[in-house]
Design a protein that fits this description.
Elements lengths: L7 H10 L26 H9 L10 E5 L4 E5 L3
Antiparallel strand pairs: 1-2
Length: 79
Amino acid sequence: MLCDGASSDEIADYLRQHRPIGVDAELVDLSHSHRVVEICGPFAWEVMDRLHDGAYVGLPFLSHAAIEGCDGIVIRASR
């Protein structure tokens, strides 16, 4: 889950308070071992095209793909 605005503690508290009865889930904060790099704006796909030779152009909305050559993923989260 990627969230913006609130702190990870605030988000975790909210999720714990609103967890449906009977749902057994564990929250794990990965911020110490994982990073997010956002490329935003009207030319974001042009940047990705140049970085990865067009491999991710046309990625469907709300989908993801592995990044070749590194341990990462591309997530298309905006239109």
